[in-house]
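Hi F.,

I've been meaning to write this up properly since the lab meeting, where we talked about keeping a consistent format for the predictions we share between groups. The idea is simple: the sequence comes first, exactly as it goes in, then the structure tokens exactly as they come out, then a line or two of notes. No screenshots and no reformatting. I'm using this chain as the first example so we have something concrete to point to.
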Amino acid sequence: MTQLFEDAPQNDTAGAPGTEDTGGGNPGEVREPEKAAEEKPEPDKTPDKTPDKAPGYADFSLPEGFSAAPEILAEFKDMAGKMGLTQEQAQSLVDLQVRTQQGAVEAWTRQRSEWRREMESDPEYGQDKLRDTIRDARLVLDRYDPAGVLLAELEKSGHGDNPAIIRFLAQIGREHLREDSVFTDRAAPGGEEKPLRDRLWPDEVMPK
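Output, unedited:
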């Protein structure tokens, strides 16, 4: 082991640290310490923990009913690999995402249930009028959405339970599409009431 100073008994009469007995020189003579050879710092041999590419992860475990888009899964594996995550660590992040998704689904399910209760208890459109409300809303969809595109979107999104949408459709059907509904033509003298068909499609466009 390289030492900066040689071991030597201290001269009690020197009066200062570093004074050494040279064994023949003048008392108190200070001898220059040997300079340690300058050592070059060794290069950092710590292995790089960041791999150049993602490791080969096994398939992650997903609950029944859950699936991952292939492109999103590939991106996640690439990011997890660059972060140096193990299979277990990456799986824990997948589990967290699944729980987050489950929470969102449960919240949306509760929202739809609340909408149904609100619609059923509505004094104008619900209760004993609910059946007529649904019928009037379907009249509008049958008339203006014959291909069922809008209906499919409402069912897919869950907004088919939204009271605001049901009321909106039902009101249109109630006022304009029922067989007993009439539409007032304000341009007609004396405010003569005409059926909706006559208002939208005059005889010269669409005969009765």
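Notes:
The longest helix spans residues 87-121.
The chain has six helices and two strands.

If this format works for you, I'll send the rest the same way.

G.
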